[in-house]
């Protein structure tokens, strides 16, 4: 049955991802209307409500869940699982920004609740909707059996994009609330990791930056069967070998702290005759393209080409997919089950490390 009215959205968490991407894209779409905002900062939520003409604003997410003028909740807060569970319990459709949760145990509760409630629920993995990524997958599939796989993400400067945006930040959150929330999350992560709890900071980085990469390799190669090797020089980088049923492992590299003035995130596959590399665009630079570099051997000659996809923003395509799922019952591509699978792999990567991180002396710092 075709929906004639726009989806009424409430956003919980009005920080960076909400302000830079979701709010402006929702506001310009005829398929959505923003009816409620919620944030711990009263000043931030008030100014955003004025900017986007939002009728209702809240400081407590439970109040937003009770709002009858909200059809769907976008979870953009720091801690996702509890908010997502509340939204599902209230009968709202849900888009959960990555990661699905901080632990697989929490993720499983969200998956079960959504399945029972029958609402549309998806994880905000916008890279799964990137036209360049889709072209890359098609190119990889046409290149023959792979003999090497690699996922690399050393990111780059996280401040370079901020000159493009006007982000509202009002320093009025009551003292201690954010610190207490962070400590509570850290305690849950530590309990989950058990004897590997000293890697909690690395695990958090893996979820906050690397969740997209875990989703990309899952989409490209299917679920992994284990992690045969992992190494880290500290809490800001990881190198690992992930195993797959086809017998061809994937080398996974991720880290933060580089000052590159470019975005350094790519997926590469080598076959006997072809090299394919998918260079992902900066996630916050709208309409930049994810290009596919193709190098082939053709009867003794070398061919090099770059495939440049249409400049269609992945976040916009993600929102269109959510509308289609809510309106027409189209199966969700970015599933909660996939997000749960990524949490399990993140846990396996950490548990493949030695129990204790190297000391500063061992790192030579």
Structure description:
The strands form two sheets. The chain has an eight-stranded mixed beta sheet, with helices on one face. A six-stranded parallel beta sheet has the order 3-2-1-4-5-6, with helices on both faces. The chain has 365 residues and is of the alpha/beta class. The chain is globular. The termini are far apart. It contains twelve helices and 14 strands. The protein folds into two domains: 131 residues, Rossmann fold (3-Layer(aba) Sandwich), CATH 3.40.50; 208 residues, Dihydrodipicolinate Reductase, domain 2. Helix content is 37%, strand content 23%. Helix 4 packs parallel to helix 5. The longest helix has 17 residues. Strand 9 and strand 10 form a beta hairpin.
């Amino acid at each position: 049955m075709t929906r004639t009215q726009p989806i009424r959205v409430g956003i919980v968490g009005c920080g960076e991802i909400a302000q830079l991407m979701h709010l402006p894209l929702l506001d310009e779409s005829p398929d959505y209307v923003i009816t409620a905002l919620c944030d711990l900062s009263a000043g931030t939520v008030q100014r955003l409500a004025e900017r986007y003409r939002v009728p209702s604003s809240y400081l407590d997410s439970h109040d937003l869940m009770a709002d009858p003028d909200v059809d769907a909740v976008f979870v953009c807060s720091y801690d996702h699982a509890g908010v997502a569970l509340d939204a599902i319990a209230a009968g709202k459709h849900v888009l959960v920004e990555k990661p699905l949760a901080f632990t697989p145990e929490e993720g499983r509760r969200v998956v079960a609740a959504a399945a029972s409630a029958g609402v549309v629920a998806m994880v905000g993995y916008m890279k799964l909707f990137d036209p360049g990524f889709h072209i890359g997958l098609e190119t990889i599939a046409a290149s023959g059996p792979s003999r090497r796989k690699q996922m690399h993400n050393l990111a780059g400067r996280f401040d370079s994009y901020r000159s493009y945006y006007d982000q509202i930040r009002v320093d009025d959150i009551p003292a201690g609330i954010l610190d207490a929330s962070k400590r509570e999350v850290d305690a849950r992560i530590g309990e989950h990791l058990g004897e590997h709890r000293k890697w909690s900071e690395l695990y958090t980085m893996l979820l906050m930056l690397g969740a997209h990469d875990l989703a990309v390799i899952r989409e490209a190669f299917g679920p992994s069967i284990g992690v045969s090797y992992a190494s880290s020089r500290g809490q800001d980088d990881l190198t690992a070998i992930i195993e797959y049923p086809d017998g061809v492992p994937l080398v996974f590299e991720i880290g933060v702290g580089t000052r590159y003035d470019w975005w350094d995130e790519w997926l590469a596959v080598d076959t006997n005759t072809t090299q394919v590399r998918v260079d992902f665009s900066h996630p916050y630079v709208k309409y930049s393209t994810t290009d596919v570099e193709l190098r082939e051997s053709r009867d003794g000659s070398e061919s090099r080409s770059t495939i440049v996809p249409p400049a269609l923003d992945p976040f916009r395509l993600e929102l269109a997919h959510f509308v289609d799922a809510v309106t027409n019952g189209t199966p969700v591509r970015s599933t909660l089950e996939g997000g749960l699978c990524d949490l399990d792999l993140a846990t396996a990567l950490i548990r493949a490390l030695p129990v204790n991180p190297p000391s500063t002396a061992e790192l030579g710092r």
